[in-house]
Structure formats: structure tokens, C-alpha cells
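Hmm, how's this folded?
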Amino acid sequence: MVYKKRKIKVFRARKKKESIDVVIENLKKDYEKIDPSAIEKFEDFPLSAPTLKGLKENKYYVPTEIQRESIGYSLRGEDILGAAKTGSGKTLAFLIPVLELLYCNKWTRAEGLAAIIITPTRELAYQIFETLRKIGIHHDFSAGLIIGGKDLKFERKRLDQCNIMICTPGRLLQHMDENPLFDCSNMLVLVLDEADRCLDMGFESTMNGIIENLPPERQTILFSATQTKSVRDLARLSLSNPHFINVHETSEHSTPAGLVQSYMVCELHDKMSLLWSFIKNHLHHKVLVFMSSCKQIKYFYEILCKLRPGTSLLALYGTMHQTKRMAVYESFCRKSRAVLFATDIAARGLDFPAVNWVVQLDCPENANEYIHRAGRTARFQKSGEALLVLLPSEIAILDQLENKKIPIKEIKANPNKLISIQRTLEATLAKDHILKESAQRAFVAYIKSVFLMKDKSVFNVEALDTDAFARSLGLAIPPRVRFLQKWKKSREAKVKAKELEDHTLATSLNEQLNNSDYSEEEPESDHSYRKDSYKFHEDDNSEEENDELLTIKRKDHNIPEADSLEENIDLELLNDTNKKKKKPLTKAAVAKKMIKKLIKPNQKTVFDETGEAVLDGAKTKVSQLAREYENSNNFGGINIEEAKQMLREEDVFDKQLFREKVKAKHREEKRKAKEEAKRAEMEDASSSDEASVDLSWLPDPDKVYGKRDSAESDENESEHDSQSGSDVSVEESDDEEVSQLHRPSKRKLLTSNSDKKRRRIQDVDEPVDTGLSLMEDEELALQMLDS
């Protein structure tokens, strides 16, 4: 027998799960005990289990320095100004407190909006949203990505269901103004990532509108690599005792330690060849190239794609469609070797993995922008290299970089590795006119970007060799830069006005000095006259009585001379003309002037011999009442009585015009009838002339030629008909039937013709006896010749 072993179940006492309220109370008690220096892992923070699980699954174990210093204050609900180097983990430093704040308040989807996270660019908002999805996967909160370029109707319907909103300033303000479902009255926390960019002049009006709609009692968290300390900006946000946390304030450099930075001085027309040579020598690297304008990015990307350098090329700029922008961002993140041409929208906060080089082909606006651009590489204690390309006129920015504690060294390009592609670009643009237009727009965009920069000690538009730069882009003729021409003209006018003003001021001062010298030499008296006053003869007693009426009561009263008055008037007129900017005269402006003057374009006016305009009653109003009605401004609508009267007046002229048309038509018909009658009379006269010829005096042909047989006459008639090509028909009397016709054979026709010719020859050889005398025969012949 086989005995089976009995399984004995062991019953163990299970731990009772603590209620959520107890867990939240314990977490809040531990917030006050947080010591940043004692924290080595995220588990040392008093965080909820869903947050810790999300961090562990995404391999976030050890917090960075900014996270250790700031998370404790954020969990307590205090306002924070956080500043740290690029790539130091500022995103988690504000996302973890946001998740814990909602967890501790037991926030549900029905309670609406609790946190707003504002970023300056769409790509950064998308990156924060993806990070929030990863670490907050075990929480039961809803989050929304509210950025421009997406479906606005889709966002409107679901906005009231979002607990955490990650957005850009423009789209957020649009929902605040237009969406009735937007409600932020219960909001707990406001986060500004890249706060200095959000609060600068570009977003000032938008951010002011947003802050006015937010509740004043809230927690505010600001993070940036270059944090703002402006009292005005902080006052706008209504911060209450904020903690300024700058973990790298005492560090030697303001950029990451693993970042190798260098700069290169290059002429403007050599930039294109330098970029091409750099790409060809770094085909196996991941490179990020920064330029100043969208049109430059577009042209450089298109032309280099035509030249095929041997690596993947991508472009990211503001005017692209949002779907394309997201696709380019994700594609560059996935690739291990590629070149991305981008504007400053990629300079803030974006975490591109494993970027080897950051090339700033155009000079950044200031040192802060340089820090953000260069911070796209050497992230999270990794290494990277940054290259800054400067023009000889832009070297002044190096002093700003030195003041910001940025270590940068100069390098020089190897001339053996530089490849000139100017000829290739010229040949490519000659074939493709669309690419040529793109090059022209890129040229103007770069000149404009330099012109609009604030720091004129670094950016000098007059120092640019525009002709050589246009040729380096492949353009044979440099495009016109209209705004630069206008600026130069206005500046010359200001210089001339200033010189004229200085000259007039100097002349007026000299005249005043001369006047003062003259007055000192004159004896002082109560009735002393100045140089400009009227003078009277003292000898004339009759005029002495009137002197008191014309004297100047004040000694210091200065009457300006006529010359100085004219100069002052000319100066005022010159200043007025300088203030009024002359606009270019365009076709649209001319048309507007014509409309204002009530001049109808494309109108033909005919004048008679006396010089008066001939009115066309079919097209224009003829009566005086109708003209007055048209010229009057009837803003209140149509006056029925006046319109009726006007139509009656015009009806008289219309009837008269109709009668004239009918009379003209009748005259034309009579003229044609007369011409037809004349033509008929001439035809009748010609026919009557022929009929009036008297042929009775001619001899009888039967007597002269003799009588012919009927057969012979029939043959002659058939011969005549065959020669004329007409059909032969025989008409008989009505009683007789039409006999069947037949054409004689060819042989018979030939014989009859030959007999006829023979007979004619015989008749010619033999003299004809007419029975007349010789004189009568000659007269007969002459009459026949005349007829």
C-alpha cells in the first residue's frame, strides 16, 4: 500500500493594510524631517508607494543635487526658485512634488485642475508629458498636453477632466479666454520650467494674462538653468518667501564638467564651406547645429540634402507643422548618428540622448542662450563637445562668457580639410529656381536677425560683407534688403538734421553774444531802444509824444532777427519732414487715393469741339437731380421720394435717347434702300443699252451662208453643249413625250468636228457675195468691229 503524504496548511496572520488617511498623515509628518545631506536614494524621501514604484521601474534610483535640495521644500508647499546646470534633472525635481501633492490631497478626476506646468516650447512640454507618464503610471490622475498645433476642439471637450496640465503659454491663455469648461479656481500648484524664458519680453503680455486668472493662494515653483532674479518678475508671480536654490552657485564653472568648449573665428562667406567640411569629417557622430532663423534652417537643410553628405539630415524650426516637429524630435532621439539643424526652440530643456557635438553656427543672443544651447550635450555627467563659430565683429561676446564663468578656448580650422562648395551651390541653384528663392529668403533672414539683436557691441550689421555672403550661398546677385536701405536713409537724414540743428544753435548763440555786447555799450535809460526796435528822430517834437507808445518796457525782452526766425522755421519744417516717414508709393496706395478723390478708374471721357464733356446717357446719369442724388451721402438709407423723382428725370432723357436711336436706325435703312435702288438702276441701264441696239440693218445669215439641215444644226448644238460641260436636254411640246437622250460616240463627234472645220476653211477661202457694194461692205465691217 502506498501512503500519500498529507499536506498541512499553515495559517499565518496577514498584516492589515493601513488606511490611506493614516499613510498620508505619516508622510506629512516626515516632510519636516527631510535632511538633504542625509538622502542618498529616492527611497530615503517620504514618497508614496506608486511614485517610488514608477521611479524604480524607469531606473531612477539616486537623486541629483538639485533634486535632493529642492524636493523637501516643495513637499512642504513652499515657493521655490531653482537654478542648476543643464542636464541636472530639474524635470523630476518638480514632477515628484506635483504627484505627491495630488496624492496627499486625495485628488480625483472629478475635482478638476490641480497643477499647471508651463514651458516655453512645445517639444519641452511633450518631453515633460512623456516623463510624467513614465513615473506616474501607477497613479490614478489624468494629465493633458495642451500645446499649439493640435486639435483645439479635441482639447476643449476634455479640458475639465485634466488634473495636471502641461502646456505652452499661448494655448493656455486661449483656453482661459474661450473655453467655458476651463476652471482653475481649485488649483494647488503652478510650475514654470525655463522660467526666465517664460517671463521675458516675448511672453510678457501672455504671462500677465495667465497670472491674472490664477488664484493667488497657490504654490509656485520656478526652475531654469539661468534663473531670473528680477524683483519685477517675482512680484508678478506673487511669491511668498521663496527659497532660492542654486546648487552650482559656488562651482568653478556654470557649464557641465564633461563639456569641452571651443570657439573659432571665421568670415561670414566661409561659414557654408566650414559647415560642409565639419559634417563630412564627423559622419559617425550625432551633431546638433544651431542657427538664428527658420528660413536659414530650411535652406541649409534642403541644399545639403541635394549634395548628399553621407549621413542623416533633419531640420527642426518653429514654422513647421506640429506633427512634423514631433516626428523630427523622436527621430533624432532614436538615431545614433545624424545632423539636426535647429533654431533656439531646441535650446531649452530638450534631452537628446548621446549628442556628441553642438555647433553654434550663428552667434547666440547672449551668454545665457549660449549656456542653454551648449547644454544639449554632456548631460547627466556624460561628455560632449561644443563649438562656437564667431565673426571677427562678434568677438566681444567672449567677455560675457568669461563673466558667466564659461571656460572656452580658441581653435583653428585645418585648411587641408576645408572643402569649398560655392561652385556646386551656384550650379544647383541655377537648375532649381525654388531652391534659389529659398536661398534669397535665408540671406535676408540672417541680415534681419543680426539687425534686430539688442547688443550692438556684438552684432553690427554694417560690418557684414553681404555680397560675399550671397555668393557663398550660391547666389550670383545679392538680393535687395529693403529694410536696411530704409534704415540707412533715415539715419543719414537724422545726421543731417542734427548737423543743421548744431549749426543754427551756434549761430543763435553768436548773435546773442553780439546783442549783449551792444547793449552794454549803450547808456542805461528807461526808454532805451534795442538794436531791433524802431528809432525816431529826437529833433522832431511832434514825434516825441508818440515815442512812449512804441518803447519797449522790458530791457531783457529779446526780439529775434528775421534771419534767425527763418532758420528756426526751416529747422522745424525739417524735423517735421523727418518725423513723417515717407512710405513707398505702391499701386494699392494710388488706388486708395483715387477712391478718396471719387475718381473712377478706367473711365473714358469724350469732349466735343467746344471743350465740354459729352455724357453717355446709357452709362451715366444725365440729369442734374440724379447727379446730386449720387453725390449725396445717404447714410440713413434710400429716400424713396427722391429716388422716384430722380427716376422720372432720367426717364425723360432715356426716352429721348431711345427716339434718337430709332431715328438713326431709320436713316440707316433709308440710306441702304437708296444704295440698292441706285445699283438696280445701273443694272437696268446696262441691260437696256444692250436691248436698244438696232440689228435690223444686218444681212440675213440664211442668205449669206445658206440654209442648214436640221441634222447639222443638231450636231452643232450637241457640239456646243459638250464643250460647255452642261447636261443635254431636249424640250418638246407639252403633247409630245420626252424622248430618251443618248450621247453620240466619240468617233462620230470627231468626224463631225473635222467636217465642220473643213467647211469653215472652204468658206474662208471662197469670197462671200453679200449683194452690196465695196463701200457698203467696209462700213458693215467697221460697224461690226465697233460693236
Notes: The longest strand covers residues 259-265. Confidence is low (pLDDT under 50) at residues 9-16, 518-567, 722-744, 746-750. Residues 481-513+565-582 form one domain. The CA atoms of residues 364 and 472 lie 22 Å apart.
